[in-house]
Putrescine-binding periplasmic protein (Paralimibaculum aggregatum), 361 residues
Amino acid sequence: MRQWMFGVAALALVAGTAAAEEGVVHVYNWSDYIDEEILAEFEAETGIKVVYDVFDSNELLETKMLAGGSGYDVVVPTGDFLQRQIGAGAFMELDKSKLPNLVNMWDRIAEVTANYDPGNAYSINYMWGTTGIGYNVDAVEARLGTDEITSWDVIFKPELLEKFADCGVHMLDAPTEMIPAALNYLGHDPDSFDTGQIEEAAALIQSIRPHIAQFHSSQYIEALANGDICLAVGWSGDVLQARDRADEAENGVRVGYAIPKEGALMWFDQMAIPSDAPNPEAAHAFLNYIMKPEVIAKASNYVYYANGNKASQALLNEDVIGDPAIYPPEEAVANLYVTSPYPPRVQRTVTRLWTRIKTGS
């Protein structure tokens, strides 16, 4: 249930009241990204009250983090944003003596997240996944003569994407994910900082802009599940939630997810503690609790995302651990890539180009 659980007024009050609250942990996470029973069980076990607020874009979280005084004890940036925020002094180094459950973490994932957070000194992995293509199976079959998508061609070739304009196409409002996808499709390094190549990637997205109905970061879940749209560039777990909601509703909508053969972004959502967290003790307790195998397994079984906790895998539902869209096979992993934060000069270019794409100007 990606939904705002607390009003804007509650968000505004957090910074002003958190410092005065003891026995409270303020958590700021992506919307619809945890089984709420986990929060209640944490409160029951520790006696620490959870105030849980949600956001739907890295850009929104970064604005709060770089401004300081957010009032949050635990936040969940994606890896490349985390890296930039660490450099800006936004997070405190973890006291690993207070995190005995670190022994449960998966070294394979920790090796990759260390690219963003050397030594994993400031964060733990919460979830990871890929950015690919969600689609209505019947709509794809009717338009392409196959019930499976294997290539980014369906998105980046205007003559193919145009076939889906009548049934609805959504794209993530995430330039740090879509620009690299276009770069990779064009044969460039998806982690390129070359502004000429980035402008070429933006021009590619601009060429398909007439066929994109909406840019956003969450609404495509319900839209796919209800059959209101037929294509969405989105996050793996979101698309799989849409698939399962459609199944539960028995509405006849079949949802598929593709990691295209050309490759896709592998991303990591990391839990970290702001440098000015009002209650770092409670924050460490929350992170340590999340790293319990049975707890993070419960979270993955709810949101249909992979997690970075090796010990949890024996507790995952078969439709999670056994789904190659969630835990991709080695041949798919070989084509996944990661990206780095854009330097300020390049970020300004990306922001300008993305604004132009979204407005269709």
Summary: DSSP finds 17 helices and ten strands in the chain.
